[in-house]
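Teaching assistant's notes for section 4

Start the section by putting this record on the projector. Ask students to predict, before seeing the second block, whether Glucose-6-phosphate 1-dehydrogenase will look compact or extended. Collect guesses on the board.
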Amino acid sequence: MTDDTTLVILGASGDLTSRLLLPALGQLLIREPARRVRLLGAAIEDGDDDRWRDVVRTAFATVGAESAYDRVAATTYRRADITDPDDLRSLLMDAGDRPILYFAVPPAVTTRACDALAGIHVPAGTVLALEKPFGSDEASARALNRVLTGIVPEEQVFRIDHFLGRSTTLNLLGARFANRVLEPVWSADHVESVVIRYDETLGLEGRAGYYDRAGALVDMLQSHLLQVMAVLAMEPPSTLGERDMRDARCAVLRATRVWHDDPVAGSRRARYAAGTVQGTAVPDYVDEPGVDPARQTETLAEMTCEIRTARWAGVPFTLRSGKAIGARHTEIVVRFKPVRHLPTGFTGSADGSVLRFTLGPDEMSLELNINGPGDPLHLDRAALTARLGEGQLLAYGEVLSGILDGDAALAVRGDAAEESWRIVQPVLDAWRRGDVPLDEYPAGSGGPAAWPEL
Ligand SMILES: NC(=O)C1=CN([C@@H]2O[C@H](COP(=O)(O)OP(=O)(O)OC[C@H]3O[C@@H](n4cnc5c(N)ncnc54)[C@H](OP(=O)(O)O)[C@@H]3O)[C@@H](O)[C@H]2O)C=CC1
Ligand SMILES: O=C1O[C@H](COP(=O)(O)O)[C@@H](O)[C@H](O)[C@H]1O
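Reveal the predicted structure now:
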């Protein structure tokens, strides 16, 4: 990586930029002292270099990376409407050779900006990094892919999914592929069910402009949780290189359908009502600023899928994510089948073992049936727990590192983005038709009382 690479952050005044991208860049520059980057920020609002430099310094400081600022070779700001070809042209002139255009802007703006880019000259080696959601359905994702590959080759398109850079997801690879003990039981022969759950205490956080159109299904399941499922379920790749990893993940998605092809039985949705989350009052979702009640947006989504391969057919993979839940509950749970025959004479129950990966703090635990204290033939439950390495970088740091190095292993390939939409489309359609009721739960609860525990 040399000084002549410019990271152009489109959406310099946005939440993602200040809260996640810049802190991650600061961390990355601290971890890799030889790395240099030029930073060009752009947004619609009038601004100047000094104000932008303050934004960068403040963001670096949030992760204790103040000293990384000296490694940024230049930091400049340009006012630009990136849907305007003239503004884009002058931005590209400022960016120089082989720029990285990071679209930290709303998805509809990204689409319009890419349409504009397709009509102008883009320097060879330009990299495009696009935030999720990628398109708004399968057809629009396909159309956007066509536009992108008309601008730069697929290897230069980074569709971002920061869950692929999360240490838990990376730890899954180590646990699965560096332990011979797991591979023989990693299939429908031994696994009964898988749950991937990301319940947050956070509510809307002022993001109605985006979230009210997306909802939990698109915001979390269609993107992040399907990618985590792909890592959990993929065939062992030959290498951790870009092609092997992306082929393996995409093969899982290609084989995935909603459970029994029945989106009504295979999904549930709900929305939070007024309540209290960890001592703080949260309004009814429809009373949050900017929400349109007519949209019937869900804040809790659940979908069960089947991966139709010899390894996984018949195993339900349930993905769930909710906002304003009483306690953070973020984990991957692999539940094994009980033993085929429990020798007569034991007392107590012998439920299947459970392998659990907790996301942040990262832990892995294996629950087993053991002979407990007292009666030696009475079965008790015990857990072997290991704290996993948190990684030196935030998830966005791993993602940025890949982009700056031109390694797309942690980015979503175009065909995988389309497959993810294909998987959720029947559910979206069923919800739009009103075939699945929109249930309610008080903010701060664990979800609708009537929903059976996963
Ligand atoms: N925020 C988050 O936690 C996460 C966000 N994302 C994704 O990141 C993207 C950005 O989200 P977020 O930062 O929250 O959004 P914000 O609304 O906070 O920021 C949007 C940014 O886009 C700029 N912008 C809008 N239109 C244009 C335009 N025509 N030309 C130039 N700049 C423009 C805005 O500039 P101005 O202020 O000048 O109008 C602003 O800087 C979305 O795709 C979102 O899904 C992904 C993961 C997490
Ligand atoms: O992309 C998103 O992710 C966050 C959850 O991820 P985290 O790493 O910030 O915990 C989610 O809150 C947000 O709604 C979604 O857009």
